[in-house]
Amino acid sequence: xxxxxxxxxxxxxxxxxxxxxxxxxxxxxxxxxxxxxxxxxxxxxxxxxxxxxxxxxxxxxxxxxxxxxxxxxxxxxxxxxxxxxxxxxxxxxxxxxxxxxxxxxxxxxxxxxxxxxxxxxxxxxxxxxxxxxxxxxxxxxxxxxxxxxxxxxxxxxxxxxxxxxxxxxxxxxxxxxxxxxxxxxxxxxxxxxxxxxxxxxxxxxxxxxxxxxxxxxxxxxxxxxxxxxxxxxxxxxxxxxxxxxxxxxxxxxxxxxxxxxxxxxxxxxxxxxxxxxxxxxxxxxxxxxxxxxxxxxxxxxxxxxxxxxxxxxxxxxxxxxxxxxxxxxxxxxxxxxxxxxxxxxxxxxxxxxxxxxxxxxxxxxxxxxxxxxxxxxxxxxxxxxxxxxxxxxxxxxxxxxxxxxxxxxxxxxxxxxxxxxxxxxxxxxxxxxxxxxxxxxxxxxxxxxxxxxxxxxxxxxxxxxxxxxxxxx
Amino acid sequence: xxxxxxxxxxxxxxxxxxxxxxxxxxxxxxxxxxxxxxxxxxxxxxxxxxxxxxxxxxxxxxxxxxxxxxxxxxxxxxxxxxxxxxxxxxxxxxxxxxxxxxxxxxxxx
Lengths: 473, 109
Description:
The complex is a heterodimer.
Chain A: E1 3-10, H1 14-25, E2 30-33, H2 57-71, E3 75-77, E4 81-85, E5 90-94, E6 101-109, E7 113-115, E8 128-130, H3 131-139, E9 147-152, H4 155-166, E10 170-176, H5 182-189, H6 195-210, E11 214-217, E12 219-225, E13 232-237, E14 250-253, E15 256-260, E16 263-265, H7 268-272, E17 277-280, E18 285-288, E19 301-303, H8 312-330, H9 338-344, H10 346-362, E20 378-380, E21 385-386, H11 387-395, H12 401-408, H13 421-432, H14 436-439, H15 453-457
Chain B: H1 7-12, E1 29-34, E2 37-42, H2 47-53, E3 58-61, E4 67-69, E5 81-84, E6 87-91, E7 102-104
Parallel strand pairs in B: 1-7
Antiparallel strand pairs in B: 1-2, 3-4, 5-6, 5-7
């Protein structure tokens, strides 16, 4: 017997929380699933008790939203991973308190995004991490290193550098790949209603300068080196395509390098559930096609938030609201004033989308960021596949990401290609001369997260197969 | 493992200069073991935070013998693997410590 719910929501970040609440308020029975121990995702992450200070206004909003979700009677399954599907709208779950399978009338996928990685010589040395990792560590009372170098792009780099300085670390430099800040602030001014965010960015910039942190515009990292961990980095000026300008190289002593090159939508679950994903070559990500109600091309399956295109927390909250109402209606709980509720959300949605499109276009790294690896550089961290091995696969005739994966095993490790797909796809496109659309990204296969045989066998077979009955939340 | 820890700091669970300053007092600590060595950690620490607070920034060897630590910090990259209570391939960055947890960074595939 499979477990059953009316609306299943995967991911308890802002999109999922908002969707679960909206669906529950429309009268549907809702199950909200999240792989972490606490709800909130990245955008509404709670600080751990180790760090001092009052909660931020965002954290207060997050708590309020979580409390409302629980008060609305949503069944919450944390530390539960959705690893696959058994066809239709059946989710395969792995979690101590979770059923093995969950069947639903509607499924809202709000799986968020993860940080993009770029490869350069030495990028696998301990001490090299994503800026997101640094933020998580700082939030838990640990400064990631003593001499921290930031490379990549965007305001998040500045904000995190400030947190490092405030925590007692020494932020050495912030290398921002974009050279022009002038047109940037003009462009941001054009996105009305976003004054608060602009002010935040400007405050960070000024504070960092006041503390002696060096912010270098139009600069980037080329390589890192050290014995057993990062000791220094080679940096250089970049041209407008983010390619290093010869002769401008410098050595920077550092023990930590924080990389901030953008986010990748987490679409593996959408892919295995049959939603059509479209690759956007200008950004290099794949996103689902959706209608006005956030529904994918599979009826009853919805996608909201960053997993449907990077857009930030505010946009996710709005999209979740819409999808929650629509998903509840699909499951037979149509709000009497549904049309009014949806049209009220239209204007803020358009505004939020406009700003986020602008933000994304401004902070996308240039092609040079993906050309730093040499043949000795490991491109797939999990399988330790070097660039030279990919070249051999291409020589054997592989010209898509999936073919290269089949031959060279890159993307077959624990992270299932999440860290290397972007890097490898671009390398293959460059080497073969094919478009990124032709090369594609890795096609996900269940289990979309590593699963042990023991975890599968722990459940009796009848929980995986057979008719569902209406039990559970 | 970092050797220079004074008793006062150990009791408060704040072990090395990687911890933030100023250091706030916290409500609860738990006793943990890292590679056989007894230590104190915050109740809410992840294994990664406990390891970094003890001065470790890398603790896992890959198949080809390369050292890794935290890379993505949120459970996606699987670089930060440790053995927890005998179970292998546990992600340190998303696993919270608990009273009596046994963390082993050796022999991890």
